[in-house]
Each structure stands twice: as C-alpha cells, then as structure tokens.
Amino acid sequence: MTTPVKKPTSSVERPARRIPGWAKALTALLLVLVVLFAGLRLSIVPGLKDLFGSETQDRSGPALLKSVQDISRYDAATGNFQVVVDLEKDAKFLPDAIRGNRTLYVGAGTVDAFVDLGKVGENDVTVDDERTSATLRLPHAALGEPALDPDRSYAVSKQRGLLDRLGDLFSDNPNSEQAVQKLAARHIGEAAKDSELKARAESNTTAMLRGLLTSLGFEEVRVTYGTT
C-alpha cells in the first residue's frame, strides 16, 4: 500500500495597502479635535483644572517717559458712549462654517470736549479802563480722540469657521479684536460729533471764566466763540 505524497503549498504575500493622503489628513484632524475635547473635559473635572491650567506672569519692564507736552486746553465736558459692533468677515466661495468669522462686541468709551485757551491772543481780550467789564473771544470747542474703556468693553460672542479655529491653535493673534475696537472707536467719535457735547463744553467754559473774572472784581463778563 503506497502512501500518497502531499504537494508543498506555497504562500503568496500580498503587497501592503497604502493609506491615501486624504485619510492621513482626516486622521490628523480627528486627533486635534479629540485633544481639544479632552482639554475641555479636563477643565470641567474638579482638581484637574489647576493641575493642567496655565499661569500668567507679568515680566514687563518699567514704563519709560518718552516726552512731555504742555496742554493749554480746558476740558469742559466729557461724554460717555456705548456702541454694539457686529463685524462679519466672509470668504468668497466658502461657507461660513469652513472659513469666516463674526464678532459681536460692546464698546464703551469717552470723548472729551475742550476749548484751547492757548489760541487766545491779545486782541481777543478786551478790558475797559475801569476794569469792570471784560470781553473774551475764544475758539470754538473741539473734540478729543475717543478713548475705549477696557473694563467696560467686551466681546459678547465670536463665531469662527473651522479653518479659522484651526489657525488659532497654531498661532497667537494679539490683534484679533483690533478691528472691532477701531470700529467701535470710530462709531463713538461719530456719535460725539452728532451730540451736543461741544455746545456743553462752551457753556461750561463760559461759566468758568465768568466765575473766575467776577471773583477778581469784574462786574460784566462777555464771552464769545469763533473768529471775527
């Protein structure tokens, strides 16, 4: 009786499959989202926030005095303003969820109205011989630059597309709110021009000069504004 002979079997190795480039990019994006989600979860768990939290240290140098400027103006009135800025930036041919941002910002600031007494010349002040009557001609009141108050200005909401969010992860942008701050200051300046702030400043300046000259012995004080 003969024993059948088994034929040797040969194994065929299959070539390894390559991972497409889009799959690698998708995997990297998922990893980033997982890290962000894990960071948010850790910040919620009690005790872990302090362990993984950040610490802020002020290493700024001393402030240096660059120049000194004499001021001859009389600040006679200050206006307090508030504006809500809704600034949206979109990208062409891309939806807002992919690229674009929208910021809702509350800007609060002040604008000073002043009279520049340094522009008053000798011919603008007239006093009678008895020194009982005086006439002053002053320049019209002007408005200063709007000054935003950082303690009362804040961003209500920020909506950013996916590409903008990913860009913020790898780069710090200290000027992210600069655009809305400039826009808020511009709107506040325009509102000050349309207000009665300059008229109030001239009225307060007139009252101040009349009180000052009356205390010096003048019985009649006349104050006018503008050039002759």
List the topology elements:
Layout: H1 21-44, H2 48-52, E1 73-90, E2 100-116, E3 125-127, E4 133-138, E5 142-143, E6 147-148, E7 154-160, H3 162-170, H4 178-194, H5 197-215, E8 220-225
Parallel strand pairs: 4-8
Antiparallel strand pairs: 1-2, 2-5, 2-6, 2-7, 3-4
Describe the structure.
This protein is α+β, with helices and mostly antiparallel strands. It is built from five helices and eight strands; from the N terminus they run ααβββββββαααβ. It has helices at 21-44, 48-52, 162-170, 178-194, 197-215, and strands at 73-90, 100-116, 125-127, 133-138, 142-143, 147-148, 154-160, 220-225. The strands form two sheets. Strands 1, 2, 5, 6 and 7 form a five-stranded antiparallel beta sheet that branches. The chain has a three-stranded mixed beta sheet with strand order 3-4-8, with helices on one face. The longest helix is centred in the first third of the chain and has 24 residues, at 21-44. The mean pLDDT is 77.
Structural class: alpha+beta
Compute the gyration radius: what is it? 35 Å
DSSP E strands, number: 8
For the terminal residues, how far apart are their CA atoms? 139 Å
Q: Provide the succession of SSEs.
A: HHEEEEEEEHHHE
Q: Give the overall average pLDDT.
A: 77
Query: What percent of residues are in strands?
Result: 25-35%
The parts where pLDDT drops under 50 for at least 5 residues are none
* Secondary structure tally, helices: 5
Helix content estimate: 25-40%
